[in-house]
Amino acid sequence: MTAALLELQRLEVSYGGIRAVKGIDLTVADGEMVCLIGANGAGKTSALKAIAGLLPVARDSVRFAGEPIGGRPAFELVRRGLALVPEGRGVFSQLSVDENLAMGAYSRRDRAGVRADHERVLALFPRLKERHRQLAGTLSGGEQQMLAIGRALLSKPRLLLLDEPSMGLAPRVVARIFEVIGEIARQGVTVLVVEQNARLALETCNKGYVMESGLITLFGDARALLGNDAVRKAYLGE
Amino acid sequence: MDTFIQQLINGLTLGAVYAMVALGYTMVYGIIQLINFAHGEVVMIGAMVAFSVIGALVGADTGLSAPIIVLAGGVVAVPLCIAVACTMERVAYRPLRAAPRLAPLITAIGISIILQHLAMMLWSRNPLAFPQILDNRVFHFGAATVTSVQLAIWTVATLMMAALSILVYRTRLGIAMRATSQNPLVAGLMGIDINRVILATFALGAALAAIAGVMVGTYYGIAHYTMGSLLGLKAFCAAVLGGIGNIPGAMLGGLLLGLVEALGAGYIGDLTNNWFGSNYQDVFAFIVLILVLVFRPSGLLGERVADRT
Ligand SMILES: Nc1ncnc2c1ncn2[C@@H]1O[C@H](COP(=O)(O)OP(=O)(O)OP(=O)(O)O)[C@@H](O)[C@H]1O
Ligand SMILES: [Mg+2]
User: Fold this and answer.
1) Less Cβ around it within 10 Å: N or C end of chain A?
2) Which residues surround ligand 2, an ion (CB under 5 A)?
3) How far separated are the first and last CA of chain B, in Å rounded?
4) Under a CB-based contact definition with an 8 Å cutoff, are residues A29 and A192 in contact?
5) Domain residue ranges in chain B
6) Contact check, Cβ <8 Å, A86/B192
7) Residue B173 and residue B298 in contact, taking contact as beta carbons nearer than 8 Å
8) Residues B127, B129, B135, CA angle at the centre, nearest 5°?
9) What's the whole-model pTM score?
10) Which CATH class is domain A31-55+72-235?
11) Which of these ranges, B2-6, B9-13, B176-180, has the smallest mean pLDDT?
């Protein structure tokens, strides 16, 4: 068992008195690919936002590479190697593809490394290469998702958080996106992905967590979860 | 025809000043959706500081040439104005960033009043007069004239606006400013410290305002602690005309407003059979504001309405 890169301990998230995440424990080891699945409103996005520094949480409830980071601002966590691809992609629609990618590398100073990674991302997503001067707002949904992922990669993350990368995309595009996420994981980036498409997520990942109304109800080996009766009924439509 | 050319020349001069000030309104609005009504006061402080420096240098009989003395005024005014604007952001606006929009707006009006009165106490109730040091050379075009001060204003304004455009559209900071204005949360996820970007935006606006203050002061030959209010309001109208939040829009809106005002002042007497004289020139900015708000609320170049998702 390798060391935990991300560790949530009794993580709670509240929106003005209403608790959306009610004390969850979750561990992602270095090099793992983990998914978090659950119904609408279960609190998955809230958990990811809390990890990424977008919501106020207790300091010790989030540990990254051994350090407590709960409540640290997002911009600081990026420098430590944590990147979030937010729900709905969040590309800067009035910036070009290249400018969006440049913002992904904002916290880096190694110009040569950034240029090389920029080229690598464009090679990973040839459709972005063809459109590199186009405004991001004019890209298709799938292209925007690729841009959001590529942009996150440019910060050279150790841990990549993805919030519903399949949202609103055609099945063929979703398959391609998950192929790429698998590719990224094989290159050594640790991945935690929130996903509605439970089957695809569990088939791609090594480990899975199931979240219901703010709590983790099940977790374990992804293959085991695929065979679990409760999961099959609730999330795989069988 | 000669009136026309002359008023065109005067309008371009005024317009250059309006554009420089309008940029400060529009950049701050673009990034935090605040109409910084204290921005006009920054222009005033720029003019007052520059006058003090210029007055001191002239009094000290340094033998420096007039343009160098004016330049020195600007060189002192710019950092001071930046300090004032950044203090304003840090102390008054930042704590209110999550508050309902009326709160910072009222705060801005309060700051504007405070700054005016501080300036009154620091300098004087009475207008400061510009020492007669510039040999204002006059160039003739038919019956129309251009002064060397006007030429200097055009040159400096053009250079400053070109530099700002390069900064905003070509540099890392500029892209970060535009990213923050589109989506501050996601900007944070990129590793951008949005507080610093917002401060930088205030600083840039203040630098332009300080230079604009030196320009109007030199152009009209006086500076007064209330000069920022009307000038600021007009520049705000210019920013709305161009599309608030839109940087090229502020430049265009400023120039157009200057032209409308100058041409309006030049012809209002003829058109109304001398019922109204050129002293009604101040009214045009507000007529323009009302027309824009009624017929094209997003302004000439504004497209931000669709952008806020
Ligand atoms: N900004 C907010 N203010 C108040 N309540 C919120 C806010 N954001 C989320 N919530 C509530 O928190 C709960 C969890 O929301 P969250 O977005 O984390 O769920 P989710 O699992 O990501 O759902 P989905 O699959 O639909 O994206 C929901 O009940 C939601 O209404
Ligand atoms: Mg969600």
Assistant:
1) N
2) A 45, 87
3) 49
4) no
5) 16-128+136-229
6) no
7) no
8) 155
9) 0.93
10) alpha beta
11) B2-6
